[in-house]
Design goal:
heterodimer, A: alpha/beta, Aspartate Aminotransferase, domain 1, about 40% helix, B: about 400 residues, alpha/beta, nine-stranded mixed beta sheet, 13 helices, 15 strands
C-alpha cells in the first residue's frame, strides 16, 4: 500500500511544500519576477504583496509588520540573534543545554571569543525549569536563549514563565527563543510569551527551504546582521526571496488551519503506547507539542531501525537532521539518557497531513524492525 | 617553434625484449587519459611528445598526465629545428631573468654540425650577451636550460621537469581484486597496487540495514577518485548482512571479526576467480587493530586456496598511510562519518590471537555456512566507475 509513496514521518526535518508555496515561486519567479526594490509600478505591486505576507506572518506571531525580518533560514535567524542581539558585551550569555545546533554553535562561537557562556541543565524530561534558569543567571546576564519546542523531543518549554523569571533576574537581558518547531503548532503569541527575539522557519510548515524569519521586538535596537543594499528597511540586506516569503505566509496560514483540525497528540500517543515496553524510553514529557515522538530502544541502533523501516517505506528521523552524522546526541546526553538508550533513538514527527492509516502502518513496521533487530542482537 | 610536452617513462627502460609490451600499454593509457582534449601524441623511442594542443589545455594535460602510472617525468618544452639560431630563440624564452644558469645539451644526432659542448658554449654565450643579469655557474646553477637535439628538424628546449606518478603502466602487471571498505587504508592500498601496474576491480561488502546507502555511496565516491589513477574500475558490492547475522547468532562473540574477515576472503577469492583477477589486495597493516595481528592475518589468510594476497601497507605507520591518502585525495572522503561496519556486531573484546582450529569450529556451528557464502557472492551487484 505504501510501497510507492513512502510514509513520511520526519516532518520535524522538513515538510512537503504546500501548493500555495509552489505557486508563489512560479508566480514571482516568472510573471512577476521584478526586483521589489526597483521603482516600476510592477515592483511596487510586489512590494505590497511582500508587505501583506509580512502582515500574515506577524499576525500568526501576534506581532506587527515592522517587527518581522525575513532571513534565509532559521539558522540565520538564530545566528543573527546571537551576533546582533547582545547589547551588553561584558555580560554573560545563558542558554539551555538542549538547543538546536545553530543556537548551540552560535553560543560556542561567542565563548571562543571570550564571552561567559552558561548552560542551563534540563530536567530529565528535557524541560527547562524556572529555578534552574534563575540559578544560572545573574544580574549581568545579557542574553538568554531557550528553545520553545525541542526539535529532538517535542518537549515544550513554558517560555512565558521562563521569560518573566529571566527579566526579573536581569531586567535588561534580551530573551530569545527558537520557535521553529512551535510555530503554527502550539500558541506562539510573542507578546504573551514576552520574548524579545523569536526564530521561525518556512519549510517546517509547508513553505519552501530558503526562507526564515526573526521576530525583533519593537524598541530593541538591533544592528543588521547582513548589510548591503538596505532592503527590509536596512534590517536585512539582500534582495528579498519574494516567492519564498509570500509562499511562506500562504503555507503557514494553510498549515495553521490544518493543524487546528488535527490531533497530533492522539497519533503520538497511539504510537508511543504500541512501541514502548520496559526496554524503550520515551524522551520528553507530557508537555509536548504532540508533533514529535522521540523513542530510545535499549541496546539497539537508531540508524539500523530507520534503515529497516525505510525498506518497508517508512521514513523516520534520527534526531535533528542537522546533526544526524554527529556520533553522540548532545541533547539526549544533556537529558541524561543513558548511552545504551541514546544510541537506539529515532525521531518520529508528524504533520497535519499524516493519516491514522499511515501511523498504524508505520507502527507495525517499526515494531517488526525492533523485534527482528532484538532477535539478531540478543540471539 | 611550438610548445610541446615531453613525457619520459620510468622503469620500462629497464625492460628487455618485452619492452614494447609495456610501452604499448603506457601509450594506450596516455591516449585514454587525454581523450576529449584535442592534441597529437607522438611515440618515439624512449619518450613521448604531446603537441598540437590549445595553450589553454596545457595545464589540464599536465595534470592528467601526472596521474598516469609509468610516467617518470614531464617537461613543457619548445620544439624547434636544430639550427643554432632557432635553439637560441627558444632558450631566450626559457631562460630565467636573473641568477645563475647552465646550458646542458644532449645531441642524439651525431651528424649535426656542432658538438654538445660547443652548442652549450654558443647558446650560453649568446644568453649572457642578451641578458647581463645572468651569470654562468656550471656546478650549482639556480636554473638549467636543457637542449635536446634529436635530428636536423627537431630540438627540444626546456628548463624544468615535473615529476610523474612513477610506477608501471596500469594493466601491465595483470588484474587484481582490491578490497575497498571506505576507510583510510584500502584506497591507499588500491592506489599502491595500481602503481605497480595492476588493473583493478574493487570489492565492497555492504551490510544494509546495519550500514547505510551513504556508506555504499562513499565507497563509490572513493572509487571515482581512484579512477584518476586506475582508469575505469568496476566496484562489486556484495550483500553481507545475512552472513554477518548468521555469524553473530552462532559463533563466539570474540571471534565475530575473525569470522567476518574469513568469510570476506572466501567470497573475495570466488569473485577474483570469476573476474580473472590474479591476486587479492587488502589494506591490512600489521598490528593496527585486533584483526590485523600476525595471528589474525594468519587465520584470515588460511581460507585462501590459491590466490596470492597482497598487503602493500603491511609495514606502514598510520601517519604515513594518511599522508598518501591526503596526497591522492581520498582522505577527505574516507573520514566522512558513514561507518563501513555496524557497531552492533562489534564485540567488546575481539580476540587478538585467534587460532585456525577454533575459527573452523565456530564456522561449523553456522547452519548452511557455505551456501550463505555462495549466495552472497552470487547476489553481488556491479557498479562501473568510468575514468574521469
Amino acid at each position: 500500500m505504501f510501497a510507492e509513496k513512502p510514509v513520511y514521518l520526519d516532518n520535524a526535518a522538513t515538510t512537503k511544500a504546500d501548493v500555495s508555496a509552489l505557486e508563489s515561486i512560479v508566480k514571482y519567479g516568472g510573471e512577476l519576477y521584478y526586483n521589489p526594490s526597483a521603482g516600476y509600478v510592477k515592483s511596487l505591486e510586489i512590494k505590497k504583496d511582500i508587505e501583506e505576507a509580512t502582515d500574515t506572518i506577524a499576525g500568526l506571531l501576534g506581532a506587527s509588520r515592522e517587527e518581522i525580518i525575513f532571513t534565509s533560514c532559521a539558522t540565520e535567524s538564530n545566528n543573527e540573534a546571537f551576533e546582533c542581539g547582545i547589547r551588553n558585551k561584558k555580560g554573560n550569555v545563558v542558554l539551555s543545554a538542549v538547543e538546536h545546533a545553530s543556537v548551540y554553535e552560535s553560543a560556542m562561537r561567542l565563548k571562543s571569543r571570550g564571552m561567559d557562556v552558561r548552560f542551563v541543565k534540563p530536567l530529565s524530561d528535557g524541560r527547562i525549569s524556572s529555578e534552574a534558569l534563575q540559578c544560572v543567571m545573574d544580574e549581568n546576564t545579557a542574553f538568554v536563549s531557550i528553545i520553545h519546542c525541542s526539535n529532538e523531543t517535542g518537549t515544550v518549554n513554558d517560555i512565558q514563565s521562563l521569560c518573566a523569571v529571566a527579566k526579573e533576574r536581569s531586567p535588561r537581558c534580551v530573551f530569545h527563543s527558537d520557535g521553529v518547531q512551535a510555530f503554527c503548532k502550539i500558541p506562539t503569541d510573542v507578546k504573551k510569551l514576552g520574548v524579545d527575539l523569536y526564530s521561525i522557519s518556512a519549510h517546517k510548515v509547508g513553505g519552501l527551504k530558503g526562507v526564515g524569519a526573526l521576530y525583533v521586538k519593537k524598541g530593541l535596537n538591533m544592528p543588521p546582521f547582513i548589510v548591503g543594499g538596505g532592503q527590509q528597511n536596512g534590517r536585512r540586506s539582500g534582495t528579498e526571496n519574494v516567492g519564498g516569503i509570500i509562499g511562506f505566509a500562504k503555507a503557514a496560514l494553510a498549515y495553521k488551519d490544518s493543524a487546528a483540525a488535527f490531533d497530533a497528540s492522539k497519533l503520538r500517543q497511539y504510537m508511543a503506547a504500541r512501541l514502548t515496553d520496559d526496554r524503550v524510553k520515551i524522551n520528553g514529557s507530557e508537555y509536548n507539542s504532540g508533533y514529535i515522538l522521540s523513542l530510545s530502544f535499549e541496546g539497539l541502533r537508531g540508524e539500523v531501525i530507520a534503515h529497516m523501516a525505510e525498506e518497508k517505506g517508512v521514513l523516520v528521523g534520527l534526531g535533528s537532521a542537522c546533526s544526524t552524522h554527529v556520533k553522540s546526541n548532545r541533547v539526549l546526553e544533556a537529558m541524561r539518557v543513558p548511552r545504551r538508550y541514546a544510541e537506539g533513538s529515532i525521531r518520529i514527527s508528524f504533520s497535519p497531513h499524516t493519516t491514522t492509516e499511515e501511523v498504524e502502518y508505520a507502527t507495525e513496521v517499526i515494531a517488526e524492525a525492533v523485534e527482528k533487530l532484538r532477535k539478531v542482537i540478543n540471539g | 617553434m611550438d610548445r610541446v610536452i615531453i613525457i619520459r617513462y620510468s622503469e620500462i627502460h629497464l625492460k628487455g625484449k618485452n619492452r614494447a609490451f609495456f610501452e604499448n600499454i603506457l601509450k594506450r593509457n596516455i591516449i585514454s587519459k587525454l581523450a576529449g582534449i584535442t592534441h597529437k601524441t607522438d611515440f618515439c623511442y624512449g619518450r613521448y611528445v604531446v603537441s598540437d594542443y590549445a595553450e589553454s589545455d596545457e595545464q589540464a594535460i599536465v595534470s592528467k598526465l601526472r596521474q598516469v602510472f609509468g610516467i617518470f617525468s614531464l617537461s613543457i618544452a619548445f620544439r624547434t629545428t636544430a639550427s643554432v639560431d632557432d635553439i637560441y630563440e627558444a632558450a631566450k624564452i626559457i631562460c630565467p631573468k636573473s641568477g645563475t644558469f647552465r646550458v646542458t645539451v644532449n645531441r642524439a644526432d651525431k651528424t649535426l654540425p656542432y658538438t654538445s659542448v660547443g652548442l652549450s658554449a654558443e647558446i650560453g654565450g649568446r644568453l649572457l650577451e642578451y641578458n647581463s643579469s645572468l651569470e654562468v655557474d656550471l656546478h650549482t646553477p639556480k636554473s638549467i636550460v636543457y637542449i635536446d637535439a634529436r635530428d636536423r628538424n627537431t630540438a627540444y628546449v626546456y628548463s624544468d621537469s615535473i615529476a610523474g606518478a612513477g610506477g608501471m603502466p596500469v594493466g601491465s602487471a595483470g588484474r587484481g581484486l582490491t578490497l575497498l571498505s571506505g576507510g583510510i587504508d584500502s584506497p591507499v592500498s588500491t592506489y599502491m597496487m595500481a602503481k605497480r601496474g595492476l588493473k583493478l576491480t574493487a570489492l565492497h561488502f555492504w551490510s544494509y540495514p546495519y550500514t547505510s546507502y551513504e556508506a555504499r555511496k562513499k565507497v563509490l565516491d572513493l572509487a571515482k577518485i581512484l579512477s584518476d589513477y586506475t582508469g575505469n574500475m568496476s566496484v562489486i558490492v556484495v550483500p553481507f548482512t545475512e552472513i554477518q547475522e548468521a555469524i553473530h547468532a552462532h559463533a563466539e562473540s570474540n571471534y565475530m571479526i575473525t569470522l567476518v574477515r574469513r568469510a570476506m576472503m572466501r567470497i573475495a577469492e570466488m569473485i577474483a576467480d570469476v573476474n580473472r583477477c590474479g591476486c587479492i589486495i587488502n589494506g591490512e597493516d600489521l598490528g593496527q587493530v585486533a584483526s590485523q595481528t600476525l595471528e589474525s592475518i594468519n587465520v584470515t589468510n588460511s581460507v585462501i586456496k590459491h590466490t596470492p594476497v597482497f598487503r602493500p601497507l603491511i609495514g606502514f605507520d598510520k601517519i604515513d598511510i594518511i599522508d598518501i591518502a591526503q596526497r591522492i585525495g581520498t582522505y577527505e572522503t574516507s573520514v566522512k562519518p558513514f561507518e563501513d561496519c555496524c557497531t552492533v556486531f562489534l564485540p567488546d573484546s575481539p580476540v587478538t590471537k585467534p587460532t585456525i582450529r577454533r575459527a573452523e569450529a565456530n564456522e561449523a556451528k553456522i547452519p548452511n555456512y557455505d551456501e550463505l557464502i555462495v549466495k552472497a557472492a552470487h547476489n553481488a551487484e556491479v557498479f562501473v566507475i568510468p575514468e574521469k
